[in-house]
Amino acid sequence: MSRSMVIKVTAGGDAPERCNQAFTVAAAALAGGVEVSLWLTGESAWFAVPGRAEDFALPHAAPLAELLAAVLTAGRVTVCTQCAARRDLKQEDLIEGVRIAGASSFVEEALREGAQALVY
Predict the structure, then answer these.
(1) SS3 (DSSP) at 36
(2) Is residue 101 predicted with pLDDT exceeding 90?
(3) pTM (2 decimals)?
(4) Which of 21, 40, 71, 98 is buried deepest, with most CB atoms within 10 A?
(5) 3-state SS string for 9-32
(6) Which strands sit side by side in the sheet containing 76-80, from one edge to the other?
């Protein structure tokens, strides 16, 4: 059984510590050999837009853009369908490699054997 982690980020610039913690956990899990699926929901959906992660700064934290790049390289990044729609985001607006998917896809990933789900 492979180890996998599904991480749902609900916070963005409105709760920077919680947001950065989710990205940090995702990158650390990947570094540890865990399969990671990072879901951007709510305000974190904006970080799927080119340049937005670069504008995020939190003292004493790894740069969000670097954490996101690490996840995109070795894991999966998804923006919630409804969250994208509420922000008028379409697939062509997002960073290459980020997908848009709905709640049923999240549930399927979270219930896969060996998966751990975290919500930030």
Answers:
(1) strand
(2) yes
(3) 0.95
(4) 40
(5) ECCCCCCHHHHHHHHHHHHHHHHC
(6) 98-101, 76-80, 35-40, 4-9, 115-119
